[in-house]
UniProtKB/TrEMBL annotation:
Gene3D superfamilies: 3.30.1330.30, 3.40.1280.10. Belongs to the class IV-like SAM-binding methyltransferase superfamily. RNA methyltransferase TrmH family. Residues 111-244 form the tRNA/rRNA methyltransferase SpoU type domain. Keywords: Methyltransferase, Transferase. InterPro entries: Alpha/beta_knot_MTases (IPR029028), MRM3-like_sub_bind (IPR053888), Ribosomal_eL30-like_sf (IPR029064), rRNA_Methyltransferase (IPR051259), SpoU_MeTrfase (IPR001537), tRNA_m1G_MTases_N (IPR029026). It comes from Aquirufa novilacunae. This is RNA methyltransferase.
Length: 254
């Protein structure tokens, strides 16, 4: 359904509130921005409250109206940019109901676990990597950045819609899954190029600056390392995730 009326002050206030974590939590909503993410959104089972598109996006408006029953408002690019978290937004945004996986249950032999990832761009890229390699569940420590942060959602390029996630106290979570090996990515572990993964495992990656915290290191069953052949001091955590995911997928296929 398409509405040509102007957004109400109440709707504008709601959109602006979703720029903050507090507003997202209070309203149980989040923002999806950009054409790619909007198109991925309408292929998912997320519930859309309404769309706001730039007035010149007639093709996108038509496509969204065919795939979603949510209301679509059209505004000027100038007003859209004011509503968006992006520096410029020439396409559109959606106000979307958050999805919580309260019955989260490990359903795959291998699961990526993140310990203290703080950068939204890193988390968004990791979500996209998990989606690319077919790892559909993500476990995050309670101090990881928020999944529904707009910068995270933008960085996923739509992959957020295909990943189940849960925030946990990692030591407690690990104790509740004693049958699953804990494999940590560290600087002094076994070479991942020659490493044989166990039948099931949590693959743990740590904070951008400090790595996996000591209390988690002490619980690891095994450690793996991406070997360096040059002189770079370290790898970005999202790059490390991609390399590990690629090696893990090769191992699974072999």
């Amino acid at each position: 359904m398409i509405l040509q009326e102007m957004l109400s002050n109440k709707q504008i206030k709601l959109i602006n509130s979703l720029h903050s974590k507090k507003g997202r939590k209070e309203n149980d909503l989040f923002l999806v921005e950009g054409e790619k993410s909007l198109l991925e959104l309408v292929k998912s089972d997320f519930s859309v409250e309404f769309f706001v598109l730039a007035e010149n996006q007639s093709d996108l408006l038509h496509e969204l109206s065919l795939k979603s029953p949510a209301y679509i408002y059209t505004v000027s690019e100038e007003q859209l940019t004011k509503l968006s978290t992006l520096v410029t937004n020439q396409v559109g945004l959606a106000v979307v109901k958050q999805k919580q996986f309260n019955q989260f249950k490990i359903n795959s032999p291998y699961t990526i676990v993140l310990d203290g990832i703080r950068d939204p761009g890193n988390l968004g890229t990791i979500i996209r990597i998990c989606d690319w390699y077919g790892f559909k569940q993500l476990v995050l420590s309670e101090d990881c950045t928020e999944f529904y942060n707009p910068k995270v959602i933008i960085s996923t390029m739509g992959s957020f819609s295909r990943i189940e996630f849960t925030y946990v106290d990692l030591p407690t979570f690990f104790k509740s899954h004693p049958e699953i090996k804990k494999i940590g990515a560290v600087l002094n572990g076994e070479n991942i190029h020659t490493y044989s993964f166990p039948e099931n495992a949590f693959i743990i990656l740590g904070n951008e600056s400090n790595g996996i915290r000591e209390e988690i290191i002490d619980t690891l069953d095994e450690k793996i390392t991406i070997p360096a052949f040059g002189e770079a001091e370290s790898l970005n955590v999202s790059i490390s995730t991609a390399i590990i995911a690629d090696n893990l997928r090769r191992f699974i296929l072999s």
